[in-house]
Design brief:
By secondary structure, this protein is mainly beta. The chain is about 5% helix and about 55% strand. Strand 2 and strand 3 form a beta hairpin. The radius of gyration is 25 Å and the shape is flat.
Length: about 400
């Protein structure tokens, strides 16, 4: 069983575990050693705010920079630091100035916290030249402070903070290979085209295009995956390329690698017709209830009580279509009872059955309020149902 958590719109989740710096992701055993181009950290102070550029990794495909941001007003309690987040767009031409890079873009950003400081990692384009200086200037920073779980005040930290270095790295770290692929794989009306693969010393970048059936919304459930020998790696989005192409980054491949596999999907294809499912509370408490939605039969399992509220879960009924799903990403789900009470959703999850090509095994709806003891019916309203589409796989050769 493979599970996917579907987060409801508006929900914000923050982990209390401090993640590893992004630059360390490129030091995995599968890749090649990479060099921090800074001889020592660069420290710039403006007003009461000090920003330190701690590490910089440059290659033919990108530049990864790790900063710490310190201000006397930041709390030294780690738990309290999670009330702070960077509210700035960090966009070239707005609050960020980039000089000496191959293009003006921020591929990704990542925040974490430590007592008294915010940690920020930016993934930028490759240097235009490995022999000439590059400059990153942060014009200002906006820091959002949450209060009682709600958005609080926004504090503006005035800059600029300017960092300049020459990205001199070993010759092997400057090389890259671009492999044109142009392979297409299809699954039930969903088409994935892998356009190219770019291999450098720090990452493997796949450019691909995802297309769905006409007039239907399609979304990949989970990240693309790269399989090399017995290791599987989830991709990280690098945003959009030109047109409707997308870029995903994986760890660097060993120099001796000759082929690898790419997995995309499963996929969610939504249908815009809304539906309301009515369930009997007595039936759910007794063991479950099977309902019919058009040609699709779903068996709702016994109602499960939790410390916060309760859960409703269904499985495809025996001999029913295992690819139909009641809700997916972007769907509006509302649960009410016959007394008019609206229950707060804690999100949904989809479980897939790898023995059946990743068909739907179970879907669970989590509610964060106790069930009204007087209620006799529960109604689940979904503004769009849909179907799950099986994954597609590609075999990629990295050498003739």
């Amino acid at each position: 069983m493979i599970a996917l958590i579907i987060l409801m719109a508006g929900a914000i989740f923050a982990t209390r575990r401090v993640p590893a710096p992004l630059v360390n992701l490129y030091a995995r055993a599968i890749g090649q050693p990479t060099l921090n181009v800074l001889a020592q950290p660069e420290v710039v102070t403006q007003g009461n705010t000090t920003i330190t550029l701690k590490q910089a990794v440059a290659s033919a495909s990108h530049t990864v920079l790790e900063f710490t941001i310190e201000n006397p007003a930041f709390p030294h309690d780690l738990e309290a630091m999670y009330n702070l987040s960077i509210f700035s767009p960090l966009s070239p031409g707005k609050d960020l100035r980039l000089t000496g890079f191959a293009r003006q873009a921020v591929f990704s950003r990542r925040e974490s916290r430590q007592p008294g400081a915010l940690r920020l990692t930016l993934e930028l384009p490759a240097p235009a030249s490995f022999e000439q200086p590059v400059t990153i200037e942060i014009k200002w920073l906006k820091v959002l402070e949450a209060q009682d779980g709600q958005q609080g005040q926004i504090r503006t930290l005035e800059g600029p903070w300017r960092f300049t270095f020459v990205p001199q790295v070993p010759e092997a770290q400057r090389r890259e290979r671009r492999i044109p692929v142009q392979q297409i794989q299809s699954s039930d009306g969903v088409h994935v085209t892998v356009n190219s693969v770019q291999i450098s010393s720090t990452e493997t970048v796949v450019t691909y295009r995802l297309q769905g059936p006409a007039n239907e919304y399609v979304q990949m459930l989970g990240a693309p995956r790269l399989v090399y020998q017995s290791q599987t790696f989830d991709g990280r989005s690098k945003g959009d390329d030109e047109g409707d192409s997308r870029m995903t980054s994986f760890p660097a491949l060993p120099l001796e690698a000759r082929h690898f596999e790419l997995n995309f999907g499963p996929f969610w294809v939504s249908q815009t017709s809304p539906v309301t499912v009515t369930l009997g509370v007595a039936e759910l408490q007794a063991g479950g209830q099977t309902i019919q939605i058009g040609e699709h039969a779903l068996h709702f399992q016994k109602l499960r009580l939790t410390s916060e509220g309760f859960q409703l879960a269904y499985v495809p009924a025996e001999a029913a279509d295992p690819w139909f799903a009641l809700a997916g990403p972007g769907a509006v789900v509302q649960v009410t009872d016959d007394l008019g009470q609206h229950y707060v959703s804690g999100g949904e999850s989809l479980d897939f059955d790898p023995q059946r090509g990743m068909a739907v095994e179970k879907q669970t709806f989590r509610l964060t309020q106790p069930l009204n003891e007087e209620a006799t019916q529960l109604n689940i309203y979904v503004d769009r149902t849909g179907r799950v589409v099986a994954p597609v796989n590609f075999q990629i050769a990295t050498s003739p």
